[in-house]
């Protein structure tokens, strides 16, 4: 939160009920135009412990083994209620409903153990123009004591919103890795299944009918399910400390069939990944893993 002179902090005593938070965010969405700018506002929760049953359910939906170490994407799952609290606050200028998760970068400084107690923090910064609206960086951190163990940077797009500034030109980044891969058949209830373990009940993920009401032709998988499933497919090959980045390039329609492609990048534990439409070969999600030195 560079340049902030005073930061207001929302201290959560317990994990909020996301259905209530979403309902409040939806009810207050009308009239949020972004004109006031992002507030110097942080959400913090201390004393966070892991519910083993909730973790097991998450691992089952995403394909992780149940281990004594938390999946890197599960830390995002833990901070998501803080993000939702931030989005629902009346000082946050952009509407939650209809927002799109463009990309995600997660950093694991060391494995986080199931038994460790966490402090979580989330805030937003760097609102800037996008050709389809406004994009915002939502940053999150997890600490064990005073030790920073995990970081997240999620970029959200608020479609149809406007903000002062020059819209950056679209950059052609070429195509990602391709070739033979694992074929994944995604069921129509995948969005509902992931919503139950993540709390993200955005209508674009829940059913074709609710997705159409939000301007999408069909339901789409959560970006965080895609990232989790792609990382889970490499679980046994991941370094202890690493960064994984995902760019959600096109919607992953559900039901549907996709191909997961992963190529090793060398001896440093790095990987390049793609999730592609099986029939057309279109790249839907581009990802990478890079070991921290």
From TrEMBL:
GO biological process, alphabetically ordered: fatty acid biosynthetic process
Tree of life domain: Bacteria
Pfam families: MaoC_dehydratas
GO molecular function term, any single one: fatty acid synthase activity
Cellular component aspect of the GO annotation: fatty acid synthase complex
InterPro entries in alphabetical order: Fatty_acid_synthase, HotDog_dom_sf, MaoC-like_dom
MaoC-like domain ranges (all copies): 192-266
Family: Belongs to the enoyl-CoA hydratase/isomerase family.
This protein's name: Acyl dehydratase
The species this protein was found in: Branchiibius hedensis
Organism taxonomic ancestry: Bacteria, Bacillati, Actinomycetota, Actinomycetes, Micrococcales
């Amino acid at each position: 939160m560079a340049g902030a002179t005073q930061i207001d902090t929302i201290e959560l005593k317990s994990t909020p009920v996301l259905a209530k938070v979403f309902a409040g965010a939806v009810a207050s969405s009308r009239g949020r135009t972004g004109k006031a700018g992002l507030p110097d506002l942080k959400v913090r929760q201390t004393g966070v412990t892991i519910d083993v049953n909730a973790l097991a359910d998450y691992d089952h939906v995403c394909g992780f083994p149940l281990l004594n170490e938390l999946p890197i994407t599960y830390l995002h799952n833990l901070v998501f209620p803080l993000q939702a609290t931030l989005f629902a606050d009346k000082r946050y200028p952009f509407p939650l409903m209809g927002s799109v998760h463009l990309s995600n970068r997660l950093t694991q400084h060391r494995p986080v153990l199931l038994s460790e107690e966490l402090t979580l923090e989330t805030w937003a910064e760097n609102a800037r123009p996008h050709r389809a609206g406004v994009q915002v960086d939502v940053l999150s951190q997890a600490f064990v004591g005073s030790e920073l163990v995990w970081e997240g940077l999620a970029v959200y797009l608020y479609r149809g919103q406007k903000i002062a500034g020059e819209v950056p030109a679209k950059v052609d980044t070429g195509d990602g890795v391709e070739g033979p891969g694992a074929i994944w058949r995604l069921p129509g209830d995948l969005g509902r299944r992931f919503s139950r373990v993540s709390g993200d009940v955005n209508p674009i993920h829940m059913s074709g009918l609710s997705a159409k009401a939000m301007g999408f032709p069909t339901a789409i998988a959560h970006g965080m399910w895609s990232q989790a499933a792609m990382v889970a497919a490499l679980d046994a090959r991941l370094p202890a400390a690493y960064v994984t980045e995902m760019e959600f390039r096109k919607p992953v329609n559900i039901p549907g069939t996709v191909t997961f492609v992963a190529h090793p990048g060398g001896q440093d534990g790095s990987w390049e990944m793609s999730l592609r439409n099986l029939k057309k070969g279109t790249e839907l999600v581009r990802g990478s893993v890079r070991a921290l030195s």
